[in-house]
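can u do me a favor
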């Protein structure tokens, strides 16, 4: 599958708005108002570390590396794949490529991701790309009538395969 990354641009506004309205994504990414959606899109647009995921040239997702770059060498990973493109391996390719990019192009030494235990697909994705579970906060959130854990995964620069990147 031809999966590439490119920087988020203003032309992606409608795509993000649709993702923010999708019921499958709202479960994991919240349900922002139209105003909050625009504010969040402007934040994403202003960051150098947010990328659109393209599959065969079509926007199918978003990956990000979030950090306070002025004083940190640890960054949070984020990923969103349009539900119409789930279960095709796109998320694994995109996340691998953004990890490659972060370790090659920034001074980050540690990348991490927080995942709700109910998000089984995201848990599998973290493990599939080589992130290691570091911490579990038990019963961190009440969701759908039950308590769920939050898990935190990470990878260190020295642990990551040193292969050439095909990213943005």
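np, heres the sequence
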């Amino acid at each position: 599958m031809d999966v590439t990354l490119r920087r988020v641009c203003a032309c992606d506004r409608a795509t993000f708005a649709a993702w923010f309205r999708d019921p499958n994504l709202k479960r994991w990414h919240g349900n922002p108002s139209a105003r909050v959606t625009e504010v969040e899109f402007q934040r994403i647009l202003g960051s150098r570390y947010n990328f659109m995921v393209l599959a065969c040239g079509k926007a199918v997702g978003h990956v990000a590396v979030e950090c306070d770059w002025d004083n940190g060498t640890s960054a949070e990973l984020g990923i969103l794949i349009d539900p119409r493109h789930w279960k095709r391996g796109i998320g694994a390719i995109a996340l691998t490529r953004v990890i490659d990019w972060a370790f090659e192009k920034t001074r980050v030494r540690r990348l991490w991701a927080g995942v709700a235990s109910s998000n089984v697909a995201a848990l599998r994705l973290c493990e599939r790309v080589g992130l290691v579970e570091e911490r579990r906060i038990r019963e961190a959130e009440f969701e759908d009538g039950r308590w769920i854990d939050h898990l935190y995964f990470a990878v260190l620069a020295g642990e990551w395969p040193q292969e050439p990147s095909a990213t943005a």
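DSSP finds five helices and seven strands in the chain. hope that helps!!
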